[in-house]
Specification:
- By secondary structure, the protein is of the alpha+beta class.
- The chain contains 9 helices and 10 strands.
- It has helices at 17-25, 35-38, 82-90, 115-124, 146-150, 156-160, 171-186, 220-223, 228-243, and strands spanning 3-8, 54-62, 65-73, 95-97, 104-106, 131-132, 139-140, 166-170, 193-195, 202-206.
- The strands form 4 sheets. A 4-stranded mixed beta sheet has the order 8-1-10-9. A two-stranded antiparallel ribbon has the order 2-3.
- Helix 3 runs antiparallel to helix 4 and helix 3 packs parallel to helix 9 (228-243).
- The model is unreliable at 235-244 (pLDDT under 50).
- The structure holds iron/sulfur cluster (2 copies).
Length: 244
């Protein structure tokens, strides 16, 4: 059974330790940032080839009270990854799934994708995760620290989280923990829910409506009543027909 990361947003303080640990483990360079111009502490503004993980800040009014939601955004390591479904049509070895760990991996072969093909891959992701380095052509996203996991260590982001907002382990154990924590939080936060727990290996526990975190918090918002697996089946069909 694959591994799962559980992210309990009720415990996230937006310290951004996970964001920095990710950059350090992957030796990603710094970005030049312009926080004072865009009016948010979310920094940088979006995921990019140097940030596989981004703590999103969302400030909104709830019955006259200001609420500030934090969302450590990253690849969900989907059970059936749409990015791979689309990528395989053009270059089968470029996007891999490690069935042992559950990690979905963008390899060096992703530089073979044209910009148009990248945009198709990006559009296929219900969570708007894939990014492209315009110089090298490489596609980028979270790796679940697959090298660490194969050596018995948790992902760097999980290891560094000081509040216990991030947990990592075997999928069934994480689901059990998620449901137990959800039951507790529901008492004070009736809107609490797990984000797409059946379809992904990075499960978010939300205490507010998904749209109050980020546009792409859950897949359902974009798919309506269709399940993600149904969506994937319909998605791959036209591309496969094109290739044939
Ligand atoms: S979240 Fe997006 S990039 Fe990550 S595995 Fe799923 S489809 Fe691919
Ligand atoms: S390290 Fe933990 S508390 Fe800090 S931003 Fe990341 S998830 Fe939130």
């Amino acid at each position: 059974m694959p591994n799962t990361i559980l992210i309990d947003t009720s415990r996230c303080t937006a310290c951004r330790g996970c964001q920095i640990a990710c950059k350090e483990w992957h030796e990603l360079p710094a970005n030049k940032t312009t926080q004072y111009k865009w009016g948010s502490h979310q920094n940088p503004q979006d995921l990019n080839p140097n940030n596989y993980k981004l703590v999103r800040f969302s400030e909104h009014l709830d019955k006259g009270v200001v609420r500030w939601n934090f969302f450590p955004d990253q690849c969900r390591h989907c059970d059936v990854p749409p990015c791979k479904e689309v990528g395989d049509i053009y270059h089968e070895e470029a996007i891999l799934k490690d069935e042992k760990t559950g990690a979905v991996l963008f390899t060096d072969k992703t530089k073979k994708f044209s910009k148009k093909q990248f945009l198709e891959i990006k559009d296929s992701c219900p969570y708007d995760i894939p990014r492209r380095n315009e110089k090298s052509g490489l596609l980028s996203k979270c790796t679940m620290c697959n090298d660490r996991v194969h050596n018995g260590m948790p992902p760097a982001c999980v290891k560094v989280c000081p509040t216990g907002a991030m947990q990592f382990g075997e999928r069934s154990a994480m689901l059990k923990l998620a449901n137990s924590r959800l039951a507790t939080l529901k008492k004070d936060w009736p809107e609490a829910k797990l984000a797409d727990p059946e379809d992904v290996n990075v499960i978010y526990l939300l205490i507010d409506k998904p749209e109050n975190y980020h546009e792409f918090t859950v897949a359902e918002a974009n798919l309506g009543p269709m399940s993600k697996k149904q969506f994937l089946a319909t998605l791959a069909r036209p591309f496969k027909a094109m290739k044939a």
